[in-house]
Description:
- The chain is α+β, with helices and mostly antiparallel strands.
- Helices cover 26% and strands 38% of the residues.
- It has helices at residues 9-24, 55-72, 95-101; strands at 28-37, 40-48, 80-84, 105-114, 117-126, 131-135, 138-142, 147-152.
- The two termini are 30 Å apart.
Amino acid sequence: MSILDKMNSTEKKVYELALPIAEELNLDLWDIRFQKEGTGHYLRIIIDSPDGIGIEDCENMSRVIDPVLDQADPISCAYYLEVSSPGLARPLTRIQHYEFAVGMDVRVHTIRPIDNQRDFTGKLISHENGIEIDIDGETRRFEKNEISSVVLADDTDLF
């Protein structure tokens, strides 16, 4: 499954425009999100790098992608462009995100309580047919329809 499989058509077009630019800047293209929020539309280009992302990386990507988007005109309405890093508690939303996170600590937030709790932290074991994490040596499995969100765990309380 490709990262493009779960994107809407606008996100796919922007991804295809942004990928060569990110690669030229030695950045990874983590995600593209095009969303309506309130009365505005937001195009979010989320970049990453093994060395981490700084404000300069976001500025460079924004400066280079902006004229490309203007010329290609993949979005028919006015929108705000945001370029950012995925952050420490990056959400795992695409198959590639889960592949990246295997062996790392993640936090699973469930839709409804399971055993009187909704938040579970453990090492990601598998993402095939649901999510499996290791919590203190015990494997815990979550079906996809039970999960509200999965993020990389950091030292802060996320929920």
